[in-house]
Every structure is written in C-alpha cells, then in structure tokens.
Design goal:
This protein has about 350 residues and is mainly α. Helix content is about 70%, strand content about 0%.
C-alpha cells in the first residue's frame, strides 16, 4: 500500500495527479515545469483583485442594504452574490502567499480556503440561474408571484448556499497540506489508492449539477427573455436588463474557460483522449491561467454596476448625500431622484 511519501514522490512528475502508482518498467513520467506562470506577477494580480473586490463588493452590499424599501428580488440575489465574492476575496492574500512561499498554513486553513473558493463559484452560478428564472417569469409570463413573496426568495438563497456547501464538501474533506519531497508545501486532495477514480467522480458530479445544469437554465431563460423583449419592442426594458446580461456574460467569460479546461483534463485522465507529455503540459498551463481568470471575477461585478448601472450610481450618490459628503444641489444637477426601481438593476415593473 502506498503511503503519503510515496504518493508525493510520484506527484513530483505529475502535480495534477491521477492517483495511480508508476506501473512496471515502461513507466516514464513526463518531465514537467511546475512553475507554470511567473509567481511574482500572479501575486501582484491577486493583491489588486483583493483590494478592488474588497472595496467594490462592500459598496454593493452597502447600496443594496441602504435601499431597503425598494429592494427587488434581483437585488437580493445580487446581494448574496456580492457577499460570496467578498468572502472569497478575503482568502486571496492567503493564495498569494502560497504562490510565493508554498502552502505554509497547515491543513485546517487549506480546507477552509478551498471550501470558500468552491462555494463562491457554485453559489455564483446558481444565483445567476435564479436571476435568469426570475426575469423569465416576470417578462415572458408576466408573473409577479415570486417578486411579491420576498420571504420565499430568502429561503431560495439559503437553499443555494446549502447546496453550494454540499457540492464543495469533498474539497473540505479530502484536501490536506503536504510537503512533497524536494518541493514546497502544497494544498491538495488525497483520497488514497483510489484517488484517480474518486477524483473523477468528485469532479464530474459537481460540474454537472453546479455548472452545466445552471448554465443550461440560464441559456433557456435568457433566450426566451430576449426573444420576448425584441418581439414586443420593449426598448426601455431591454436597456434595464443590460446590467444583468453583463453580469452573466462576465461570469461566463471568467469561469467557462477554466471549466472547459477541466473537461479536457477529465477526458484525458479517463483516456477518452490520448495523454501526451505535451498535452499534459498545455493543460496544466491552461489550468493555472484560467484559474487566475476565475479569481479575477470577484472584483468585476461592482465595476459593471458602476459603469452600466445608473441606479447603482444614484444609490451610492444618495448615500454620500445622506452622510453630508456631497450636497443636495449636486444630486439635482446630476438628476438623482428618489428611487422608483430597484437599487442596482432591473425595474420592479418588468
């Protein structure tokens, strides 16, 4: 039976391990460069994302909470999305330090930050799927049932957090801090001799229920929503949807590449496509690069709200005016009036 030391001797040749030991004399592991990207550049990117996310998502939470009376269902979902991004952003200094010095924080913190990363991803796409369904019901079927029952939306959000936690639990349970031979400490999962088999199961199931199905729901809902808007020539209402479409598009641009690379990696590990040293190296580099792109997503939504969401800007200016930081005359000049719609995105009469 393998022990952890033997496992990590094997991992020196293949960091994204399959869990299968070297077999026979024909085994010839690929010599891979584990330093995929310049770690100093990655640390700087993580630091910038951390600062932008901390500031931006805090402002989003403040604006939504401040507009309690006119808060829409969409705002509740976006509030939870901002909380998820903010919680994950708080772990970025840890990921940055790990890039620089290896995983020096022990197993407990390894489990916690891995859990927050996965919960952030799954809750993000599930919340966006719920927004798409809410807009679909409101526009295509002219249904306001969900909008009127805000307490139901709170339970939906709790369900999303709970389901995201369940999908992320394998990372919390199986991740450990290791010190490979002649290498820096790492935070990675270990499932014993059956690592290859279980790793595929733990990858395919969450990807199916936490990414593919919500993505299909969004494509269906927004497809019919857009068709209804254009068919009815609802120009003003279409403009009101721009922020939501932008949020969904940015999420997909940031996380879809990483998930597509994971699919390619899974196909290669299950031998549905041939594994070569060159292909393994390319996929490992792609995983590194696309993961950074996914981390970048945590700071982008507030930027979307600031540049596209007129209601968000108005809400922020009204908070500044309430605190005496700007004058009411400034609000009048910039045509900032009282709220007639939700605080960030979509008018409630859609």
């Amino acid at each position: 039976m393998w022990n952890i030391s033997d496992l990590w001797t094997f991992l020196e040749y293949d960091f994204n391990f399959t869990g299968m030991p070297p077999l026979g004399e024909e085994y010839s592991p690929c010599s891979l460069d584990t330093e995929m990207l310049n770690k100093h550049v990655v640390v700087v990117i993580y630091a910038l994302v951390f600062l932008l996310s901390l500031l931006g998502n805090s402002l989003v939470i403040l604006v939504i909470l401040y507009s309690r009376v006119n808060r829409s269902v969409t705002d509740v979902y976006l509030l939870n999305l901002a909380v998820a991004d903010l919680l994950f952003a708080l772990t970025l200094p840890i990921w940055a330090a790990a890039k620089e010095k290896g995983w020096i924080f022990g197993t407990a913190l390894c489990k916690m930050v891995s859990l927050l990363k996965e919960v952030n991803f799954y809750s993000g796409i599930l919340l966006l799927a719920c927004i798409s369904m809410d807009r679909y019901l409101a526009i295509v079927h002219a249904t306001r049932t969900l909008t009127k029952k805000r307490h139901l939306v709170k339970f939906i959000c709790l369900g999303i957090w709970g389901f995201s936690l369940i999908l992320s639990l394998p990372f919390f349970i199986f991740r450990q801090a290791f010190i490979p031979t002649n290498s820096s400490p790492v935070c990675y999962e270990f499932l014993g001799n059956d690592t290859a088999k279980w790793r595929m199961v733990l990858r395919i199931l969450p990807q199916t229920f936490g990414f593919v199905i919500p993505l299909l729901v969004m494509l269906f809902c927004y497809g019919f929503t857009l068709r209804t808007l254009f068919k009815a020539h609802m120009g003003q209402k279409h403009r009101a949807m721009r922020v939501i479409f932008a949020v969904v598009l940015v999420f997909l641009l940031c996380w879809l590449p990483y998930n597509l690379v994971l699919v390619a990696d899974t196909l290669m590990r299950t031998h549905l496509i041939e594994e070569t040293c060159e292909r393994r190296s390319d996929i490992d580099r792609a995983l590194d690069a696309t993961e950074i792109l996914g981390f970048l997503h945590t700071c982008l939504n507030p930027i979307i709200y600031a540049f596209i969401g007129q209601n968000f800007r108005n809400g922020f200016l009204k908070i500044l005016a309430t605190r005496g930081l700007i004058s009411k005359e400034f609000l009048t000049r910039h045509r900032v009036t009282s709220y007639t719609s939700s605080s960030i995105t979509v008018p409630s009469n859609l």
